Prior knowledge:
By secondary structure, the protein is mainly alpha-helical.
Amino acid sequence: MKISKTTINLCVFLFFALFLVLAPFVLPLFVSPFWLSVTSEILIWSLFAASVNLLFGYVGLLSFGQALYFGVGMYGVAIGVAKLGLGFWPAFGFGIFLSVVMALIAGVFAVRLTWHYFAIITVVFSLIFYFLALSWKTITGGDDGMGFSMPPMLSVGDFEISMTDSMVQYYFILLIVALCFYLQHRLLQSPLGKALIAVRENDTRAALIGLNVYALRLTAFVSAGFLAGVAGALFAFFGRYASASYMFYHVSGEGVVWTLVGGLGTLFGPFFGAALLIILREELSVYWEHYLLLVGVIVILIVIYAPRGIVGLYSDLLDRVCKNDDDQNNKPGSEV
């Protein structure tokens, strides 16, 4: 019996979705409860990598400045709670709003450029606000960053739901990240998403058929800033902390690496790339203090031997298996 690629992909998707939903109950049976926290972190960083992927994989713009919007999302939450006295949801919205506004301001200038010029200007924006955050100690805490106490998500009398509960924290992060990936999927399947891909393939031809290349790139840039901002706001609640170090461009570089390893221009590539490298980091760091050397070697090998990333490698293997099944079924005498 022949099984279609669509069916196999659906089964794989359902397997990972079911694992993520049941992770708080399944993981403690096999590993330390610490890994539930790691899984939460993977989800947040995969969303951050998705913001890189949206620009690089679907619009062709390599950004090394996504850490800026991640950091602004973090600081928006921390300042909202610690300085402005906002509750959970207003602080969450405030962090995302600031990220989107920052992305709009930077994007107005950045998307006028392409290739390495675009990458350079995104780094410059990231560095400007990184050093500003370091020097503005009364607001940001400077090198020390700023912590805050977790406000409740919902409080009715004595009943309270808060992210201080690890179960609530995990499922809230999972829900928000899943929603963002779904929104990105809908965006990419829409006419707007097809227009973005047309711009990536050939911006000159896209302009000739009437597409507003500048507006499309700006839309993608702000959308990517939104995803990075949501990730930053989640990470602030995850760690109850905001730091300027997360605005530095090396954080953006990690997002690029996760995207390349997972699969550039694929919806779930950033998730698998972030998951692989974060798990390797946690495991190897136990045995060797220079574990990053091994992680670097693994990344190099993946880029060389699987240039389309983990998702691309999976897709190639699936195509090969299905092709072998077709060849087997098409042999003389194979039909009943």
